[in-house]
Structure formats: C-alpha cells, structure tokens
C-alpha cells in the first residue's frame, strides 16, 4: 500500500544506502479521529496525527534517519546540530545507534527533559547564550556553524531545507501518510518554527497531487506563538520577506527568530490557500490541556499549537463544519515536564491509608 512503505525503503535506493539497521521504526504514526473536541464544536472530521509517537517522541526522527543514513554512506563520523531539543534528541538517538559522535548546541531555554533525553543517548551538549532568542546571535551561529562544519567535513544537521535538504525529504512522508489515509483532507494545521516542517508537507502533498494520488494540496495553516511569529507577520502584511524578531515565547521548538525556511513556508501557505495564525502562549497551553483532558493525547506545548490554531480559525469562521481537518501533534508531553506541571499541578495527590481507599467518593 502506498504510504505504508517505510521511510527507509522509500529513499534507500535513491540514496544508495545499504544498511537498514539505522532505522528505529520512525513514521507510520497513528491518525486518530477527535472524539470530543471536534464533535463538541460541530466538526465531525477533525483528526490528530500523532507524530509524538515516533521513536524519540517527535516528527524529527523522519529527517534524522536519512541524515544519519547518508553519514554512514559517506563515512562521516561527527555530526553537529543546533536544536531547541527535539532535533537534538532524535540525532543523539540515531547517532548512538550508528556510533557517530554527536555535538549539539541548544538554546538556553531548552526544557530539562529534552536535555536529559539527549544526554541519556550520550550526546555532547552546549547551551548557547541568547541562541533562539536573539535573531542576530541565532543567525550568526547558524552561518558560522555551517562554514565550520563544511571546512572540517562534519555534518551539520538542522531540520530545515536550507541546511539539511536531503534529510528533510524524509519529512515529506508525513504528507504521504496523511494523503493516503484521507485523500480529500481540506485543512492541515502545522506548528511553525523555522518552517521546514510546513514546507516539507507542501512538497509532499504537491508530489502526491502531481502523481494523481490526491486531487489537490490541502490548505496548509501555519501556527506560531505571538512571541515569535515572523511568518504570520509577513503573511498578514502581504510581504515576501521574513523579518527577524526577538523571540519572547516559552513554547520550546517554535522560537526561531529569523528566516530559515520561513519564506518557503510562507509561499506554501499562500500557494495552498491556507492562512497563518499567531496565538499567545496561554492559548497554546490551553490547547495542550484540552488534548490531555478531552482526547487523552499527551503533547508538549509545540505539539498542541496546531490545535490552538484550529480553535482560532473556528473563532474567525474560517472553516466549515463539514470540512476535514488534521492537526499535527508534533512532540510528546514527556518532552517538557515544566509545561506539563501547569496542567497537572491543579490536581492534588493526597497520601492516604490503605483502609481509606474504600471510603472514597468514586463517582
Ligand atoms: C515539537 C515541534 N513542533 C514543531 C516544530 C516546528 O518545526 P519547524 O522548525 O520545521 O517549523 C518543532 C521544531 O523544533 C518542534 O520541535
């Protein structure tokens, strides 16, 4: 069945790869129908694509598997990465598996759980002051790392077409899987940081549409936190350039203050007839709590941003109830336990005696 083909298999021949051992079973994630949120709002065809269930807990595994496979092919031994945590965790896992040395530069605000995950796999990590917050420092770090890695023959792994175009081909499989399961999907809501994810979806749907496997590309909606929304700003103003901002969001993964793949993502939103939504962090946290309480889905804040965008679109009457909508749940709740405490700390956990169990009001 098309789309059920493994990411590894799809690109193995193309890349001339010989070692399927690199795979950890990434991709082919569940697409589940909303049980409560969608129907409550009159949307019977709302779906969640659980990218949080990839091997390291985010969609990044889809691109890292190809980057590492290509490192094996070319004999490269060292990879460098910039990350807010999820690329780093994915890279650290696949590097451990393939005995590559992995050095990751993360933002100051990277959640502890993501740091722990990278460290557990054996990565070397450095937190870089102001990286991911200051547009200038972030841009300069990317550029210098790119040059440095090229000079030394190291691989720079960044989840963006600008820096890792080969690996990003793997993220297109996300579109293939959605298109195979829902060939007439009308809207896809996508959390946007650097913009690589949304761009990959556009390329993937477009490829399937050209091949006649779907009729058209769905409307792609970019969702960003207000505190770092350069793509939304350009979309609203009708501009083509992504201007730098100072990031002021606590949503890890979406704090990318300058253009990496943002201009491509903007083109994709426009070409597909979608829209761009900027939301306060609080609304993203509310969507995260809704996913937990109403759908049983445990996502990190960035993983709930797509739902927050969907809710905003409903408020603005931008969607019709009969339309089908997919919200990407891009990262697992265990990635950011501080964010999770906002949801769980409201509920006390009393210590009781064993006999008291049977006196509790269960109803
Ligand atoms: C969980 C999560 N969702 C969404 C994104 C945004 O992806 P992109 O930077 O490709 O726009 C990221 C990026 O780090 C992420 O970690």
Write up this protein.
The chain is globular, with a radius of gyration of 20 Å. It has a 6-stranded mixed beta sheet, sandwiched between helices. A 4-stranded parallel beta sheet has the order 5-4-3-6, sandwiched between helices. Helix 1 (7-15) runs parallel beside helix 3, helix 8 packs across helix 9 and helix 12 (281-295) crosses helix 13. The mean pLDDT is 93. The protein is built from 14 helices and 10 strands. Helix content is 42%, strand content 14%. Strand 4, helix 5 (112-121) and strand 5 (124-128) form a beta-alpha-beta unit. The chain folds into 2 domains: 7-58 and 167-344, Rossmann fold; 61-166, Rossmann fold (3-Layer(aba) Sandwich), CATH 3.40.50.1100. With 363 residues, it is of the alpha/beta class.
């Amino acid at each position: 069945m098309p789309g059920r083909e493994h990411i590894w298999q799809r690109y193995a021949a193309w890349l001339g790869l010989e070692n399927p051992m690199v795979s950890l079973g990434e991709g082919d994630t569940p697409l589940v129908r909303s049980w409560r949120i969608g129907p409550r709002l009159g949307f019977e065809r709302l779906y969640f694509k659980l990218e949080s269930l990839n091997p390291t807990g985010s969609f990044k595994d889809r691109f890292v598997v190809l980057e590492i496979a290509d490192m094996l092919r070319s004999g490269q031994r060292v990879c460098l990465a910039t990350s807010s945590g999820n690329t780093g965790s994915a890279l650290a896992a696949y590097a451990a598996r393939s005995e590559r040395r992995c050095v990751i530069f993360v933002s100051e605000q990277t959640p502890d759980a993501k740091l722990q995950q990278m460290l557990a796999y054996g990565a070397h990590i450095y937190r870089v002051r102001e990286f991911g917050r200051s547009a200038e420092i972030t841009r300069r770090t990317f550029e210098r790392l790119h040059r440095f890695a090229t000079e030394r023959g190291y691989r720079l792994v960044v989840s963006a077409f600008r820096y890792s175009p080969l690996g990003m081909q793997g993220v297109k499989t996300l579109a293939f899987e959605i298109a195979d399961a829902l060939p007439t999907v009308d809207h896809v809501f996508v959390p946007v940081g650097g913009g690589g994810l949304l761009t990959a979806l556009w390329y993937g749907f477009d490829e399937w549409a050209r091949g006649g496997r779907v009729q058209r590309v769905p409307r792609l909606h970019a969702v960003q936190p207000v505190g770092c929304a350069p793509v939304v700003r350009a979309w609203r103003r009708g501009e083509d350039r992504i201007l730098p901002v100072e990031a002021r969001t606590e949503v890890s993964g979406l704090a990318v203050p300058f253009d990496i793949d943002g201009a491509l993502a903007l083109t994709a939103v426009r070409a597909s007839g979608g829209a761009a939504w900027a939301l306060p962090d609080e609304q993203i946290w509310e969507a995260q709590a809704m996913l937990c309480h109403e759908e049983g889905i445990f996502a990190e804040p960035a993983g709930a941003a797509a739902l927050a965008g969907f809710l905003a679109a409903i408020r603005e009457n931008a969607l019709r109830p009969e339309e089908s909508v997919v919200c990407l749940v891009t990262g697992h709740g265990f990635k950011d336990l501080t964010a999770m405490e906002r949801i769980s700390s409201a509920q006390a956990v009393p210590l009781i005696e064993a006999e008291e169990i049977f006196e509790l009001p269960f109803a």
